[in-house]
Structure formats: C-alpha cells, structure tokens
Amino acid sequence: MSSKAILPPAFADLEPFAGWSLATEAERVDKRIHASPAEIRAFYDAMAPRMPAVLAWLDALPLSALPADAERLLWLTWSMAEAAMATEKFDARGTVPLALDVRRFRPLHETDGLFADKRH
Amino acid sequence: MASEELRDAHHDSEAQWRWTARFPRMGRGPVPASRVTDPAGFDAEREAIFRRCWLHVGRVEEIPAAGDWFVQDIEICNASLLIMRGRDGTVRAFHNICRHRGNRLAMEPRGNAGGGRMACRFHGWVYDDAGTLRTVPQEENFHQPTCGVLNLLPVACDTWNGFIFVNLDPAPAQSLQDYLGPIKDYCDGYDFDRLPGQFAYGAEVQANWKLVMDGQSETYHVAFVHRDSWPRVFTSREYPFGRNLDMRFHERHRTWSAAGGDFQPRGIEALALASGPSVADAGAFALDAAEHVNPTRDPKWAFDVVHVFPNFHLLLLPGVYHTHQFWPVDLRRTRWELRVHMPVPATASQTFSREHAKVFLRDALLEDGILNEQIQASCDSGVLQEFHLQDEEAFVRHGYWAVDEAVRQWQEAQA
C-alpha cells in the first residue's frame, strides 16, 4: 500500500478512497454520477468523521504552495462536497432526481478560463 | 366566458393584491402560452429588444490588463462581439468580424492582444486596441484603401458598477445611465470590487428564454421543487411557501427582496457553512454602504434581485453576489449563464466551503432547468393555452409585461 499511497501518511486510512481525489470538477462530477449509492455512502461515511482533522491539517499549510500529497487530500474534500450533497439530500444517489443531467451545466471556470486568475 | 366570470368573482378589491397593485398595468390575467411558442413574437423580441436595449455582457475585472479581451455571442442577433480593454484603460466593444472577408477576429473565448494588436487568423490583418486597421499583408495589391479605413465596427459600450453593457443599435436611443433610470442608484455602495468571480456555469436549456428567467423569479416553487435539495432555505413554519419582502416595478426594470426560512444545516453541510462562505452569505461587509439594498431591513432578509431589462438578474446577498443571464438562442433554446462572486478563499477549509456552495447551488438549478423544458413542451403541445400566476409571482408577470411593452413601443414607432 505504501508504494501506491497518494495521500499524506496521517490520512492513510483514507487511501481506499483515493480514487475520489480528482483535480477537476468535470472529473469529480463524472465520479459521482457513475458511483453507486453504496459507493457514495461508503466514501461519505469514511470521510465525514475525518473532515475536521483533514481541514485543520490542510489549514496549517499555505494554500498557494501545498505539497502534492496535501493537494490530493484537498481534492478529496472537494469530492466530499459532491458526496455530501448526494448523501445528505438525495439518498446517496449520484444523479439529482427529477433534474437536468449535471453534464449539461458546463463549469465555465474550468472550460472557459473564466475567473482563472482569481481562484485557487 | 365562465372562467372570466369566475376570475372576476375571485377579485375582491384592488387593495388585496399586495404586489400587482403596485404596478396595475401588468394586469392580472393568465399569460398566453403563445408567448413562448410564437415565432413572430420571437422575431419581434429580436428587433424591439435585443437589437436596441443595453445588454449586460460581463465584468470589468474579467479584462484587467491592457489588451485583455473576451468574446460575447448574442445568438438571437447572430452577433459575436469582442470586448477589449485598451492601453488607455477604456473598455470598448466591436463586432468580432475582420473587415477583409468577414472571418471572426477572435476565435477563442478570451485572451490578450499583445502590444494592443490583434491579428486575423485568415490573412493576418492587424487591428489595434481602438479597432483601427493597422497593417495588411500585400496592402498595395488591394483595389480599395484598407489601413485606417476598414476598421473594426464599433458597438456602443458602457459600464455600471463594473458591469459591462453593450447596445447593438448603431445609435442607441438612450445612454446606459438613462436606460437604467430609477434603478441606476440601487446598488450604490455595494462592494463589488472585493468579490471576484469564483465559479460559473453555462447551460443550454430547451426552453424559451423567458421561461428560464421565470424559474429564477419567484420562491413560491422552492418548497416543492427543492424540497430535498434546499429544505427550509426560503420557507419556515411561519411562512411555508416563502415570503417576499418587497417588489418594485420601474417600467421595464424591477427589484425584489425576499426573506430566508429556518434552514437547519446538518452534517457535512453544516461543516461547510461553518468553514467559510456559502452561496448565501460571506459576511455583511459588502453591504455596509449599500443603503438601497435590503429596503425593508427585515431581520430575515435573504437576497435582493435587481432585474435589468431584458435578460439580466443580479442577486445581491451579504458578501456574495450571483448573476444570471438568459440568452435567447432561438425560440425554444436558451443559453443560461450563472456566475457567483464571493471572497477568494484564503484557506483549504474555505475552498471546501466554496466547493460545497457550488454543488449546493448547481444541484438545485438542475432541478429548475428540467421544469423549464417541461413547461416549454406543454406550451408546444397546443393543449395548454395559458398559464396562471398568483400575486406573489408578480416578478414573473412583470417580465411578460415588460417584454410586451417594449415590443408594443417598437411596433408603434414602426407604424
């Protein structure tokens, strides 16, 4: 496991969910909509109790110069935003019920370079 | 007939109507479904509105440096515009058309004209940041004068609180300030400068632009459409269907103020809200000097919407603002663009809050979008002849009145 570990050692327990560490919103959305409710809930359940520690650990580092493993941990929290909405609002369904397909909302902050210099 | 009588019987007195009484010209009857299905109506909207009104296209901070530009398409008019900041600091708009043979001068959504020069990809004609044609390869071979003559075609352009507006009319009837009229001071003091854009979405919705706008013009639907995604965001035990605090109708423009509910975030949602800004609140600082915003000063105030006719919604919240732009592509197609401006995250926790805010808003808007398409289909069926609006939906109703009025005035001027 250590040879394949991508997260900081302090959060080795989250390595089984490293597949949720994705840099772009397009990838995180793709992961969410193709995950089963059981997969989403498993990620949520593992991550939820660790979130305060994860955020506190990341907040101690300079946001603009995160080491690679810390940045991958940050991306995991961003996927947690997707998993949390799915779990807490939609019964862990990856797609929003009775709604447009999320892929029809183009994230212009990624695809168009909009606000590119203003965001972390 | 019978329904007309019923409708009259239903009216008790003018005084019972909280919002439509403020602008009786908007009427109280049903809205004909043809308003979103009639091709002639769409053509009239193009001529009367989109070719003549001031249209919001973006923010000045999108193009902070000399030579920065972005492209704005206005599909209903088959227009592509190039918005550029010159080396003199002035923001100008041009038709995005090379005068040689009509190629698009800019072929990317945004960029920078190095040295204030921009070259056409087709044959290398070079324009400067004031739109003047500067160099033409093999200039001596052209049969007509080129440099300094075949300049970019300018488009009227002005700004309001840092929002860039254009007007496709070669000689606009009004300045932007006069066009905004009674709403031009509404945002005075709101601290837009401290709130850079943080995320944005673009969606093509298979529905008339007015239907997409309607979906963002009332909170009556929230208790139902967003029962899972946004429970009690705008509703409460006391006000189970939401509560409008204020609506004002200023001829074509309008403003609206609404109260929040007794939202009780739990779990990770509560952590996200505790860790940084949300789509609804990033601290009151942006409002400190904004004396006209939140006109009722209600303690449960949630947001104001400033609607700039014809297709721009500006949502003002504490430390956050959103813009919605509803661009007609054709009669049954709308390019809906949402932008959210909030403080730049300073910590990892705050980026997590922003990501949660993004998902929270996006997922609810997906729920709105599908309704727009279903309503369009119902209107297209020919079965539904009209749709109905209650008094708390007066912001929607006024939208139809304002479009009608603009078309009527234009038609009168043509006659």
List keywords for this structure.
heterodimer; A: 120 residues; mainly alpha; 5 helices; 47% helix; B: 415 residues; alpha+beta; 7-stranded antiparallel sheet; 8 helices; disordered N terminus
Could you characterize what this model shows?
The complex is a heterodimer of chains A (120) and B (415). Chain A is an all-alpha fold. Chain A has helices spanning 25-34, 37-47, 51-59, 68-89, 108-111, and one strand spanning 105-107. Chain A contains 5 helices and 1 strand, in the order ααααβα. In chain A, helix 1 crosses helix 4 (68-89), helix 2 packs across helix 4 (68-89) and helix 3 runs antiparallel to helix 4. Mean pLDDT of chain B is 95; it is low at 1-6. Chain B has 8 helices and 19 strands. In chain B, strands 2-11-10-5-4-3-6 form a 7-stranded antiparallel beta sheet. In chain B, strands 12-18-17-16-15-14-13 form a 7-stranded antiparallel beta sheet. Chain B has helices spanning 2-10, 39-50, 176-180, 209-214, 222-225, 267-275, 348-380, 394-414; strands at 31-32, 54-59, 68-74, 79-85, 91-95, 110-112, 117-119, 126-128, 133-135, 154-160, 163-167, 197-205, 244-250, 253-259, 301-308, 312-317, 320-330, 333-341, 386-387. In chain B, strand 7 (117-119) and strand 8 (126-128) form a beta hairpin. Chain B is 24% helix and 27% strand. Classes of the chains: A mainly alpha (120), B alpha+beta (415). Strand 1 (105-107) of chain A pairs antiparallel with strand 12 (197-205) of chain B, so a sheet runs across the interface.
